Amino acid sequence: MRDPFGARLQERVRALGPLCMGIDPSTLLLESWDRPDSVEGLEFAALAALEAALDVAAAIKPQVAFFERFGSQGYRVLERVLSDARDADILTIADAKRGDVAPTNVGYADAWLSDRSPLAVDAVTVSPYLGVGALSPFFALAQEAGRGVFVLAATSNEEGRAVQSARTRDDEKVEDLVLRSVSEMNGRDDGLGSIGAVLGATRDRPEFHLPSLGGPFLVPGVGAQGATAEHVARMFDRCPQGTVLANVSRSILQAGPDRAGLRDAAQRWRDDLARALA
Amino acid sequence: MRDPFGARLQERVRALGPLCMGIDPSTLLLESWDRPDSVEGLEFAALAALEAALDVAAAIKPQVAFFERFGSQGYRVLERVLSDARDADILTIADAKRGDVAPTNVGYADAWLSDRSPLAVDAVTVSPYLGVGALSPFFALAQEAGRGVFVLAATSNEEGRAVQSARTRDDEKVEDLVLRSVSEMNGRDDGLGSIGAVLGATRDRPEFHLPSLGGPFLVPGVGAQGATAEHVARMFDRCPQGTVLANVSRSILQAGPDRAGLRDAAQRWRDDLARALA
Fold first, then answer.
1. Cβ separation of B107 and A162 shorter than 8 Å?
2. Are B219 and B192 in contact (CB under 8 A)?
3. d(C-alpha A133, C-alpha B88), whole Å
4. SS3 (DSSP) at B19
5. N or C, which terminus of chain A has less Cβ within 10 Å?
6. What is the pLDDT along chain B (278 residues), one digit of tens a residue?
């Protein structure tokens, strides 16, 4: 039986630093790498990104959309990437942003968090538009399997603000409702819980007191989207050590396809983030 | 070049009635049908449901979660179901509830709406937690390809209420913001637009004036979840004819795996809905 995700992530971040390497093999990336926009191009790019992340990043975060583009063949590539990552002992986070009514979430939880699934990852991102309560099948299976869940609170993009900053009947912002719900489920102050939140570094600090989340933060928006390592450090000031995982995708991937270039870029970002968050 | 989705859907609903047949091959369904919880069981159940829908339902709505459970092999089954549905000339709606930042939505739109994708459907459901604006790649590709998009406004489940009824800075409920945004994009009053909204029949009528959406409604919550054909008729009173598509899943599927039973149940629901919405 594996240890809980929260503990495994904290151990990795302490050992390797807070970098999560985003694997976003988009059409634009394949073009800029001069690779075909095909299953073969996808596989090349995803495996090159994984290789650059090994022993540098605490985790990889494949963006599922860019695999789903190729249907079942794209998913076979994703299964290969996840299997190689497991063999190389690097944590995997599927950026899937799944979310539906509870009986349907049983299916999605199975897809991403069940030991029997070829798509099983250490953690998956989920979207709370249908309510945090509807996500309970993810939380239950994560707990059982020693895996994790990151619930979207405030995302890195400007268009997300209207919904995420809307106020509930209790005059609480939606993003704060999500953070509070996560913290109640974790119920601890050491950050070792396995339910995390996604909070964009490009956004204002929420009203919720971040150090009391009880679990990890997954932080997009760093690099190409505008936030620096210092922005991340300021926003997550006083959070328990090892609970902040900053995702960088495009700013690293643009250094490819040259393998040394990719690896250098990943190491530079890791060092920057580790220094700022120390 | 195919006709726009809005026009194709309206024509189908007028010809066959307003039933959308949900294809939800969950673990529970496979158990109740005494089939193995495997790729083979999945394929049997999905194809049996498709068969029952032919010439009865205006569209089928496969629930993607239950295919994703089996990874690439499950997606191969979904590709088979979609290909058979295309051959049989029944409309297909992928219930995927995808939604991310705009550059990532380019990938998801490609997956579900591009002519080159093995997963291409007539329409896909999307989730606006990251903002309606971030969904623009779906709207653009749908327009170009004669396909459609259904944006979640208010879902059928109770847990969705806190987020969907939260109020934006302009004191508008999130669900009304979604409906208004969709109506502005359609910009017409005949309901023939190709951007639709998901609105659960189990929810209160929103403040937004439903007949002015300009596109179709996809309506979950009918049958097992509690709403009747009469609830649907009352909620969508005065909407243009052919713009309301009511989804029924469990209440039909529980009549299986017997093919005659499935078909009878589908026809009964179609007749009920057609009468109530006439």
1. no
2. no
3. 39
4. strand
5. N
6. 799 999 999 999 999 999 999 999 999 999 999 999 999 999 999 999 999 999 999 999 999 999 999 999 999 999 999 999 999 999 999 999 999 999 999 999 999 999 999 999 999 999 999 999 999 999 999 999 999 999 999 999 999 999 999 999 999 999 999 999 999 999 998 889 999 999 999 988 999 999 999 999 999 989 888 899 999 999 999 999 999 999 999 999 999 999 999 999 999 999 999 999 98
Spatial distance between the Cα atoms of B214 and A27, rounded to a whole number of angstroms? 33
As its CATH architecture, domain A5-271 has Alpha-Beta Barrel (3.20)
Chain B residue with minimal CA distance to A102?
B157
Surface of B (9-68) touching A: CB under 8 A? 24, 26-28, 63, 65-66, 68
Give the start-to-end residue ranges of the domains of chain A: 5-271
Which residue's entry shows tokens 């069940």?
A114
Show which of residues 61-90 on chain B sit within 8 Å of chain A, judged by CB atoms: 63, 65-66, 68-76, 78-79
Of all residues in chain B, the one with the smallest CA distance to A73 is: B72
Task: Show the beta-strand stretches assigned E in chain B.
Answer: 19-23, 59-62, 91-98, 123-126, 148-154, 195-199, 217-219, 244-248
Residues in chain B closer than 8 A to A151 (CB atoms)? none
| Interface confidence (ipTM) of the complex | 0.98
Tell me how crowded residue B171 is: count the other CB atoms within 10 A of its CB: 8
Residue B84 · residue B76 · CB < 8 Å: no
The CATH classification of domain B5-277, taken from the options 3.30.470.10, 3.20.20.140, 1.10.540.10, 3.20.20.70:
3.20.20.70
- Which DSSP string do the residues of A209-230 spell out, in sequence order? -GGGSSS-EEE--BSTTSB-HH
- The 10s digit of each residue's pLDDT in A208-240 is 999 999 999 999 989 888 899 999 999 999 999
- CB-based contacts of A198, cutoff 8 Å, min separation 6: A125, A150, A151, A152, A153, A154, A155, A217, A218, A219, A220
CA distance B46 to A77: 25
B97, B61, B46: which is closest to B245 by C-alpha? B61
Using CA atoms of A153, A110, A69, A163 in order, give the dihedral in degrees to the nearest 10: -20
Distance from CA of B161 to the nearest CA of A (A): 7
**Burial classification of residue B87, based on how many CB atoms lie within 10 Å of its CB (0-12 exposed, 13-18 middle, 19 or more buried):** exposed
Task: Tell me how far apart the alpha carbons of residues B64 and A111 are, in angstroms, rounded to a whole number.
Answer: 11
CB B31 within 8 A of CB B76: no
The token pair at B103 is 């550059």
